[in-house]
Amino acid sequence: MSNEDEFYDAVTGLDSDESYEGVSEASFKDALVFDSSSQKKNGSVPQENGIKKHRTSLPAPMFSRNTISVWSILKKCIGLELSKITMPIVFNEPLSFLQRITEYMEHTYLINKACSLSDSIERMQAVAAFAVSAVASQWDRTGKPFNPLLGETYELTREDQGFRLVSEQVSHHPPVSAFHAESLVGDFVFHGSIYPKLKFWGKSVEAEPKGTITLELLKHNEAYTWSNPYCCVHNIILGKLWIEQYGTVEIVNHSTGDKCVLNFKPCGMFGKELHKVEGYIQDKSKKKLSVIYGKWTECMWSVDPQAYEAHKKSEKKGDNKKHKNEEPEGAENDDADDMPEVQETVSVVPGSTLLWRIDSRPAHSTTMYNFTNFAMSLNELEPGMEAILAPTDCRFRPDIRAMENGNMDEASQQKERLEEKQRAAKKERAKSDDEWSTRWFQMGTNPYTSSQDWIYSGGYFNRNYQDLPDIY
Question: Nearest CA to 58 among 405, 292, 296?
Fold first, then answer.
């Protein structure tokens, strides 16, 4: 097997306490969506109160990774570019990266809430909560998604949450995934392209999810843009794997000039900052109007800036007394970076407003790749879908399907076959000087940032899938 096509550990990234109701028929130029009527013709679909039910578990539990040594692989690859390293399939999870980025949509109710608010600052608070929630599913998700094949696609329509999404792998080297989501009632458009850049630091892997994310609230004529924080997976070589996210995320409202600056904090020496997010919303004159704080693994709150500063001062006095005589312990550990003890609760400032709280994961999540309920449903192939989905949809990938069913040997063989098929197709194109042509997205200019971006060209939901590549 060539070591050309594997490990770009695409760690990027979502649970809702509310569901979106009152969804009517889609009003898009792109024609029909996959609906329940087509399902009824092809098989029964579970329903509850008229809403389609989705599966809440995988067909088989995950395979144990305890017997596999990452170091036995990485020690042979010192000095090589990380994207060139082939990792055993046991370190994957049974989702494509296109499905992984679809998890941004798990908390779509926050976008719907933003659409319903009349105050621009309150809308920014809801958008900021959505931006944080969009990476929440990465908590304890240490398996890497499958690298999408060039031309691979994924679609998802969720009538209960009021959106539909299509994504495409538009580039293989470097790997670039483009996505486009729309409200079923015409309230918003959410789109972007992600191209993870990886660094290997010896005991950890750091992923920089490069690329701009754009959210347009159509009824308010507003557009917001931001990029996701860095993500780091610790103890790649030895010890228990754990994840932290850090860096500054700036959300800009290009219509009003308002900006939200969020600081995802690294865990620090005592681990007190692990998972914490703090930031503020300012207007175009840079006046701070609201403070946002919480944890990306738990909840986010907003409060008046003065109340927040007063609370922090009183907290700091207490901390100084508490830690006056403490000395750092275990600052250096050559074997593993122990995960700090998680402080599960956020200290709520009096007068705060709750913006978002994560749902608990299902009880069997730890045996199923730490998936959320939303993630459990992403690779489900429902009755009738085969006749409607594009043949390039990653639900049809035999390696992911085999892994989901617990057949690791078949999954590994299929993965190798697909990668070899992709390499052969690339060689054939080179012989005839054929350029790869994307189908649903085109390189263009983001109208709000003026930077290059992959823009949805439309037409996917017309269901005209002629001349699509045979990638599986």
Answer: 405
d(CA 54, CA 59): 13
Question: In this structure, are residues 272 and 315 in contact, taking their beta carbons and an 8 Å threshold?
Answer: no
Residue 333: exposed, middle, or buried by beta-carbon count in 10 A (0-12, 13-18, 19+)? Answer: exposed
Query: Distance (Å, rounded) from C-alpha 99 to C-alpha 395?
Result: 9
Q: Distance between CA 358 and CA 348 in Å, rounded? A: 16
Please give the pLDDT value at position 226.
95
Give CA–CA dist 113/187, Å, rounded. 11
CB 153 within 8 A of CB 392: yes
233 compared with 137, residue with greater pLDDT: 137
- The pairing of strands 144-146 and 92-96 is parallel
Distance CA 388, CA 41 (A): 12
CA dihedral in degrees (282, 287, 291, 297; nearest 10)? 30
**What does 116-185 look like in DSSP terms, one character per residue?**
H-SSHHHHHHHHHHHHHHTTGGGTT--SEEEPPPTT-EEEEEETTTTEEEEEEEEETTTTEEEEEEEETT
Distance CA 31, CA 365 (A): 37
The CB density around residue 138, as the number of other CB atoms within 10 Å, is 25
Q: What pLDDT shows up at residue 28?
A: 37
Q: Compute the average pLDDT of residues 359-378.
A: 94
Tens of pLDDT, residues 285-311: 999 999 999 998 999 999 999 999 998
Pseudo-torsion of CA 176, 229, 212, 202, nearest 10°? Answer: -30
Query: Chain-wide mean pLDDT for the chain?
Result: 82
Nearest-angstrom CA–CA distance, 346 and 381: 39
Spatial separation of the C-alpha atoms in residues 141 and 241, rounded to whole Å: 9
Long-range Cβ pairs for the range 433-437 (8 Å, 24+): 436/150, 436/151
Under a CB-based contact definition with an 8 Å cutoff, are residues 241 and 219 in contact? Answer: no
Q: Phi, psi at residue 147, to the nearest 5°?
A: -65, 125
